[in-house]
Amino acid sequence: xxxxIGILTGGGDVPGLNSVIKGVTYRATEAGFEVTGxxxxxxxxxxxxxxxxxxxxxxxxxLTRENTRTIDRTGGTFLHSSRxxxxxxxxxxxxxxxxxxxxxxxxxxxxxxxxYDVTDQVKKNLKELNVDYLVxxxxxxxxxxxxxxxxxxxxxxxxxxTMDNDVRNTEYCIGFSTAITRAMDAINRQRSTVGSHERIxxxxxxxxxxxxxxxxxxxxxxxxxAIPEYQFDLEKMIDLLVNDKxxxxxxxxxxxxxxxAEWQGYEVLHYGAxxxxxxxxxxxxxxxxxxxxxxxxxxxxxVSDLTYDLRxxxxxxxxxxxxxxxxxxxxxxxVEGKSGIMTAIVNGCYTLSPIPDPRLGxxxxxxxxxxxTERYRPTYDHKLGLPIFxxxx
Length: 393
Prior knowledge:
Blueprint: E1 4-9, H1 17-30, E2 34-38, H2 43-46, H3 53-59, E3 60-63, H4 65-68, E4 103-108, E5 111-116, H5 119-128, E6 133-138, H6 140-151, E7 156-160, H7 176-196, E8 200-205, H8 212-221, E9 224-226, H9 234-247, E10 253-258, E11 270-271, E12 281-282, H10 285-297, E13 301-305, H11 317-335, E14 341-346, E15 349-354, H12 367-370, E16 371-372, E17 377-378
Parallel strand pairs: 1-2, 1-6, 6-7, 7-14, 8-10, 8-13, 9-10
Antiparallel strand pairs: 2-3, 4-5, 11-12, 14-15, 16-17
């Protein structure tokens, strides 16, 4: 039976991660297991030099009941995080320079670049750390490497987290409920300011490829929304918002846009270098939409970028409950010798699913059943029989 569990968090932080870390640690140590925390996500297994005490202390942390006792009272991740892809390392740590790793050369915009696959080094480090099982907590990107590592012979149990709620094979990801709660609170607080100045409020939230955060925020705040899965008509959206404003006794209206939302003819602009998984940051669609609205109608706007605020602070009840439950499920899997699986919610029930195939991309909103393309709002009818989060895995 496995006796040492490794645990890491990758990608963006969300509220609830610390509840998972604490939950796994408590269950494991109570059963006589040791738990090793890998700091800074996959970087902790690609950049750690176990022969260097300083490097080891930076990237490896023994987890106990004592040092995890209070971590679930705060947001973020106790183990820290990074966006590191061990399959596509753009450069090697200094102590690995000169060693041979599988590599691939690519060319983009006339520039050639080389990336390295250091999976063998990751496996070597896990072996030297005596880690028998790895619990990987993350979204699509982090879990794509979790699947790769499991296929390479390392037993992995995955736990899904992301505010976008777009991981396949589950209806819910840790962090989503808190994100919606934060967005709802922020929008409702700002109603007084938007209304006082009789403007149109434009709110931008996370959602690069999937519109769940925008859609569900609109659902609970009764405002219009735009999602990446459907290109809206710019003039129509503007007309709807102007009419909403005129029909509102307080003379204001609101719309929430996913960061990946587009209107017909809109050219998405990016900035910055690609991250380890090939993503570049998108320019603020809220500002671009505001400019179009003001130039065509003369209406004044207030633009609020809520993105990072949604992942800040302590987890709400739902995220703490789901995170703690997923932690217990992950440990049960380890005791039972299961790997290559992910804790999940399907049809409203806790279950286990395969770690998603990264080639399929993120789970997306079903526009036909969830988004009213005439009114640019969520659909509110025909929900009888659906699970609590109104969507299938």
